[in-house]
Amino acid sequence: MTEPHVFLNGQHIAASAAHLKIYDAGVVLGATVTEMVRTFGRSMYRLDDHLARLERSLKYVRFDIGQTMDELAREVTALVEHNAGLLPHPDDELGLVVFVTAGEYPTYAGSAGASGDNRPTVCAHTFPLPWELWAGKLDCGQHVVTPSIRHVPPQCFDPKMKYRSRMHYYLADQEAKVADPGAIALLLDLDGNVTETGGANFLMVQNGTIVSPTLRNTLPGISRQTVIELAAELGIPFVERDFQVFDVISADEAFTATTPYCLMPVTRINGLPIGDGQPGPILRQLLEAWGTRVGLNVYEQIRAGAIRRQEAALAGAAS
User: Fold this and answer.
1) What b/e sequence results for 181-200 when a residue is b if at least 16 CB atoms lie within 10 Å of its CB, and e otherwise?
2) CA 61 to CA 157: how far, in whole Å?
3) Residues of the chain scoring pLDDT < 70
4) What is the DSSP secondary-structure string of 64-80?
């Protein structure tokens, strides 16, 4: 095939042929656990860690996919190898999404679900990393806004599971964009403690120490774990504790950590500058060390990729 593949319920099929049933519980209930992995140099970064977390999530929600993580790793590796070969430029990279739903929702499936087949739906697909979405924020940073929408408390379900029931994230981001169309939401818990954004862990720097919210109500991100490891290598202290918006306003710097773009500076919160309003030195040290680990300059890859996309778009418009 000359189009990307999708791994769906044990088969590699053309992306154009991959569909979920309208009565899948992932659609009906949002009953879905998920992972996202990215490539560096077309090789997946920390795949084993992501699949180990997926396995814990599957056990927590009682999904039996009838497949080991080693078997799933072989399938997604083959998927990425094929789809990476279709990328237009050798420096482009892929994001890999793996998700598992509870399968058919029998009440809505009706006669279509009469076979009693309620096995989980297992899917993996890829997408080219969208450099152009991030390049503009590399130098000026992100603006985070704390909305009235609060993070789902851990009494509802454990945040160590990575899931897709994310209406609260969506509503929070919509509210943040009322204040600033370019902003993203930074959610607080019910006690007013900082938690995370809809797609990333949030970290701040105070007096040379990286400070993370506790894991009581935040996802233990793989990129966050990379920050912990790099900080140890660089001799930068790392602590976990509760903190509030007041602390972020008075922090020296802040940033988010997530799989697709690794690290991104946060330079404003609720319209106020963090530190001097510019990306800080701790972030730069971490990014340089991250690049050494993966064998490329992460920020330069994003910048160069965004320029290529812009030039391609202009060439397409001219033709």
Assistant:
1) eebbbbbbbeeebbbbbbbb
2) 10
3) 1, 110-117
4) --SS-HHHHHHHHHHHH
Residue for token digits 């233990």? 220
- Tell me the two tokens of residue 110: 């009706």
pLDDT in tens, 126-152: 999 999 999 999 989 999 999 999 999
Contact 212, 240 (CB under 8 A): yes
Structure-block tokens of residue 98: 């793996």
Nearest to 141 by CA among 286, 256, 309: 256
- Letter for the amino acid at 204? M
DSSP 163: B
Residue reference for tokens 């965004």: 306
Phi, psi of 240 (to 5 degrees): -115, 130
d(CA 245, CA 202): 12
**Cβ proximity of 162 and 221 under 8 Å:** no
Cα separation, 303 vs 8, whole angstroms: 33
Name the strands in the sheet holding 121-128, side by side, starting at the edge strand that comes first in the sequence: 11-14, 5-8, 121-128, 94-101, 32-40, 43-44
Fill in the amino acid letter for 132.
Answer: E
The HSE-up count of residue 259 (CA atoms within 13 Å, CB side) is 25
Count of other CB atoms within 10 angstroms of residue 23: 17
Q: How many helices, marked H, and strands, marked E, lie in the chain? A: 10, 15
Contacts of residue 60, defined as CB under 8 A and 6 or more positions apart, other chains included, come to 158, 160, 161
Look at the block and give the residue holding tokens 């710097």.
Answer: 253
Residue pLDDT, tens place only, 150-163 = 999 999 999 999 99
Cβ atoms of residues 87 and 28 within 8 Å: no
> Are 103 and 25 contacting, i.e. CB atoms less than 8 angstroms apart?
yes
